[in-house]
TrEMBL record:
Keywords: 2Fe-2S, Iron, Iron-sulfur, Metal-binding, Oxidoreductase. Pfam families: DUF5914 (PF19299), Rieske (PF00355). This is (2Fe-2S) ferredoxin. The keyword Cell membrane does not apply. It comes from Streptomyces rubiginosohelvolus.
Length: 336
């Protein structure tokens, strides 16, 4: 999948003439065929991941500190070496098992806080590093034993606007479900205006994989983002799943064309009663060719919390959807 070639057509902000009450909008359930979503999910799951998992945001790991993550049952520690390069490996100290996420980093070396064993990122005393990748927005670790697929040199990072033309923000949330429930939620674009009426109106799914067998990859959606009152921003967007745990929305036409919203689902350790948990890491990389966007870039530190807050509001609902889906699957009651 790729962004629309050439310069996107400008669609300005629009004032909706009439506000259709929520209950009078067109129902989407007839079009949102469970089999369409299930097949899109199956295709996503059949794509290679190269055993890469997102563990956090690049911005959240400054030099001099360690980051801990538990992917499935694998405890991982991450930090930056003296050159700022991402290093990852098992989260337990090879000596007596101290949690390395709590250890300090001195000049790029992780120093265990129990007895002072030092790790520079290379193999040492039975500690073997994991391959790691920092794509500039997100941090990835490759766990071959857990993934069980043929490994790839790098993760499948979606096409994004150039960093210097964009403002990026990363939202992170956790749900009691499996990664496939998060991906399935994203592959159901029909719920947008019904389930998130505070953000979306006038949503029409204009293309599904079933419409064009030659392009079996994406869902195309025309939708308006609510700005304030009746003021909306109409856009055309495309959802696709480049790998089993990622769904990407590219804005292909309208304000912010070229922007992407990437949703990454990473399995975590189960909770106390044994229910699965999944981290949602959503990277919003917003681009615009409007002149005012240069100002927006300068204001990025202020914009980021706003972008995260709006993603957080959507994900409160979407995680409820994903958790519900898992509960129904777990109890054999899923209608799909
Ligand atoms: S547990 Fe880390 S040095 Fe002893
Ligand atoms: Fe949603």
């Amino acid at each position: 999948m790729s962004p629309v070639p050439g310069r996107p057509r400008r669609i300005p902000l629009r004032l909706r003439r009439t506000a259709v009450p929520w209950e009078r909008q067109a129902p989407t359930w007839r079009d949102a065929k469970p089999v369409l979503i299930a097949e899109a999910l199956k295709r996503a799951q059949s794509r290679p991941s190269g055993n890469w998992y997102v563990i956090g945001a690049s911005r959240d790991l400054p030099p001099g500190r360690a980051l801990g993550a538990t992917v499935g049952s694998t405890e991982v520690v991450a930090w930056r070496d003296g050159e700022g390069k991402l290093r990852t490996g098992p989260g337990a100290c090879p000596h007596l098992g101290a949690p390395l996420r709590d250890s300090p980093v001195h000049c790029g070396t992780l120093v265990c806080h129990w007895h002072g064993l030092s790790l520079d990122g290379g193999p040492f005393a039975g500690w073997e590093p994991y391959p790691a990748f920092d794509d500039g927005v997100l941090l990835w670790v490759r766990l071959d034993r857990m993934g069980g697929e043929p490994p790839s040199e790098r993760p499948y990072v979606p096409v994004r606007p150039r960093a210097r033309d964009a403002v990026e923000a990363v939202y992170r949330g956790i749900g009691r479900c499996e990664p496939e429930d998060v991906v399935a939620n994203r592959l159901d674009p029909w719920h947008g205006a019904w389930f998130h009426p505070y953000s979306f109106v006038d949503l029409t799914v204009t293309g599904t994989p079933a419409d064009d067998p030659a392009d079996d990859d994406g869902f195309t959606v025309e939708v308006s983002f609510k700005v304030a009152g009746r003021l909306v921003v109409p856009v055309r967007a495309r959802f696709s799943a480049p790998e089993p745990r990622t769904v990407v929305m590219h804005i292909i036409e309208g304000e912010g064309a070229g922007s992407v919203v990437e949703t990454h689902a990473t399995p975590l350790a189960p909770d106390g009663p044994g229910r699965p948990r999944t981290a949602v890491t959503e990277a919003l990389v917003a681009a615009s060719d409007r002149r005012g966007f240069a100002v927006a870039r300068a204001a990025a530190p202020l914009l980021r919390p706003l972008m995260r807050a709006s993603a957080g509001r959507l994900w409160r609902d979407d995680l409820a959807y994903a958790e519900r889906r898992w509960e129904l699957r777990d109890s054999g009651r899923f209608p799909g």
